[in-house]
Amino acid sequence: MGTEKANEGAPVQLQGEIFRLPLPSSEKPSEIFSNIVHQAQYNPHFLPLKFDQEQAFYATALSVRDQLIKRWNETYFHFHKNDPKQTYYLSMEYLQGRALTNAIGNLEIQGAYADALTKLGYEIEDIADQEKDAALGNGGLGRLASCFLDSIATLNLPAWGYGLRYRYGLFRQRISKEGQEELAEDWLEKFSPWEVVRHDVVYSVRFFGHVEISSTGSRKWVDGEIIQALAYDVPIPGYKTKNTISLRLWDAKARAEDFNLFEFNAGHYESASQLHIKAQQICAVLYPGDTTENGKLLRLKQQFFLCSASLQDIIARFKERRDGKGTYQWTEFPSKVSVQLNDTHPTLAIPELMRLLMDDEGLGWDQAWDVTSRTVSYTNHTVLPEALEKWSQAIIWKLLPRHMEIIEEIDKRFKDMIRATHCDMETKIPVMQILDESNPEKPIVHMANLCVVSSHTVNGVAQLHSDILKTELFVDYASIWPGKFQNKTNGITPRRWLRFCNPELSSIITKWLKSDAWITNLDLLSGLRQFADNVELHAEWSSAKMASKRRLAQYIFHKTGVSVDQNSLFDIQIKRIHEYKRQLLNILGAIYRYKKLKEMSTEERQKATPRTIMFGGKAFATYTNAKRVVKLVNDVGSVVNNDSDINDYLKIVFVPNYNVSVAEILIPGSELSQHISTAGMEASGTSNMKFALNGCLIIGTLDGANVEIREEIGEDNFFLFGAKADNVPRLRKERENGLFKPDARFEEAKHFIRSGAFGSYDYGPLLDSLEGNCGYGRGDYFLVGHDFPSYMDAQDQVDEAYKDQKRWLKMSILSTAGCGKFSSDRTIAQYAKEIWGINPCPVP
């Protein structure tokens, strides 16, 4: 697949190659069997005379990739011929998960591949387990991007994704007695069978250098370092459609001419290959540590590398398609191209598009700004202060001098516009400006402000979050441009997150709805409501849940050595470890539960609801308090799980190295899921949607998408606790004034930790964050103490509800039935219509 021109008819000759567009039939088990054997025999990655499970996976994956590439090429040619407006989704991360099961599921060839592998002596489940998750993301941001690509392909929309090809990912998490350890991910140790290296798609990306001004006043960025961006394409298939789109990942490499052979032969190996080493650093890891100047430079390099390579590619495709229809006009660009920024990481796409249009294409400022501001749209994903990126002006001047000039001019013109047309808001300029020079020694660039000023649309990702953007975070911008702000509540793909990961429950849903149309029209799940009291459905629902719980229990024992009671309540919190997500609240509640169980008599314990509490998630390597939480969870688990007095009533498990494939085991087996962030701090969350879709009940705050989930599934089917978002500022102020009186249970749990009951590790600094009266990181900024009493009361309600299995099963069914709104198909259809302005372009 490339940027070649397609002629009508088949076969089609393109620059010396023949692409036969009609899809050959190769979905019979016998043909698939032969293709897998062919891959094993002739692929240079395999050793002769060896065909173990790992090689069987690679041969199978390559066979599936052949199927994808046929559809992929046809999709590209179809888009080229019809020339629709196309969206390009820029994201620093994608959390894809395993591709084999998803691909054969979307292509509806699971059975054929299962039969073929059986003939080879393997079970398809065992072969699928050989695949390593692509280490291209970390959390909800990356998983959302991957769900979106699945929906884009399924809805036949003309769009691509752009990202970076990280060799070692964020990190592989290992849990030891010391807590979390970070190791390099090895997902590319052998090779990825899904990616296609594109040696014909290479762009030069410049760093450093200076701006040269010609005699006519035109400006040109020159000198510095040149790194090449090499494309790797990953095909993304839609469900029950021929449309297969591309996730284009960029890898960095140095030019051959930058290898100094003279220096190398003189024994100066490092200086000879200095630029090659620097190139390798760019795509080495996701989110490199940024506590040092070098770390900050590398992060900014990554962001610009993604933006520059992607925009050069987008412009090249625009020119190539327009050349086929006569001379292209830049005024047409926004009617043919939409660029979506997934959070602030790709913000540099704005000044880079301006630079390319002005310096390379010769447009004036006004025309370039018109094109850029009608092309780019921005999704905000957070209201957390530390996540709203701010870059030192000095570091941008150093790395990207031309872009800093452009940002300065955007800021100047924006402030001039405020003074000229909104003079009553001139006093708001200090909080709205892009360049903040309130500290002259360390002036900064507000990337979110740059996005808001430069984008035609800004959207939040849940109704509460979008309201906060308009009434708090970006309130002044919203008063100037009220039509610029939209809500697009996030969603998840029902293919991966129900149909494929929970086949037992999926079959039951299809049986009772008498159709599998719900897989692409999730609103149809509402039809389950009429059966919520049906005894037969209850029995089938319970059986499916128990099958998933057995799988999960086996996985936990295999990974941790902890044996859990399959009849206990499976209670799960899996997400990035962060203080605002409040895993600390969860473990404090578990500690209090453990202490009370210890104090009970044998007869009293027998009345308790047995519970297995599971945690999963990674703490950033430099986030000390988050790593302390991981350590605490594991220390508490070590004590609780080895206490014979309460062994039948409570287990606490930390599932290591949480990723998509782990989630696909945890979520179907879950019965209670904790989404307990401080109200107003979680933009949306999507794991809550995945759990609810699989019939798992939620205990949570009125935060992010929890608000809408509770509305859709019914208030009686949601265990609510905690402060509301609009009360949080007042509660923090009361805390500062010394008015907070802690609950006795909260104090008891903290004291139990300080007593040394869970080991000699000093948890003082972690507990200190819950004490005092003020300060971020002190004074219980995240309101753990305030919400603890209502949290424990809600947990008591959970215990009572679980004892009544008839009631619990009804609530579970109603949870699934109410999840129709939370399909990413719905979200993407809204983006396409209301932001991107693109229409379906199905391959016939």
Automatic annotation (TrEMBL):
GO cellular component, one term: cytoplasm
BP GO annotations: glycogen catabolic process
Family matches, as CDD domains: GT35_Glycogen_Phosphorylase
Enzyme class, UniProt record, top EC level: transferase
Modified-residue entries (N6-(pyridoxal phosphate)lysine), positions: 690
Annotated PROSITE patterns: PHOSPHORYLASE (PS00102)
Keywords tagged on the record: Allosteric enzyme, Carbohydrate metabolism, Glycosyltransferase, Phosphoprotein, Pyridoxal phosphate, Transferase
Molecular function GO labels: glycogen phosphorylase activity; pyridoxal phosphate binding
Cofactor or coenzyme needed: pyridoxal 5'-phosphate
UniProt EC number: 2.4.1.1
Keyword Glycosyltransferase found: yes
Catalyzed reactions: [(1->4)-alpha-D-glucosyl](n) + phosphate = [(1->4)-alpha-D-glucosyl](n-1) + alpha-D-glucose 1-phosphate
TM helices/strands, residue ranges: none
InterPro entries in alphabetical order: Glycg_phsphrylas, Glyco_trans_35, Pyridoxal_P_attach_site
A Pfam short name: Phosphorylase
Family: Belongs to the glycogen phosphorylase family.
Function, in words: Allosteric enzyme that catalyzes the rate-limiting step in glycogen catabolism, the phosphorolytic cleavage of glycogen to produce glucose-1-phosphate, and plays a central role in maintaining cellular and organismal glucose homeostasis.
Name recorded for this polypeptide: Alpha-1,4 glucan phosphorylase
Biological source species: Vanilla planifolia
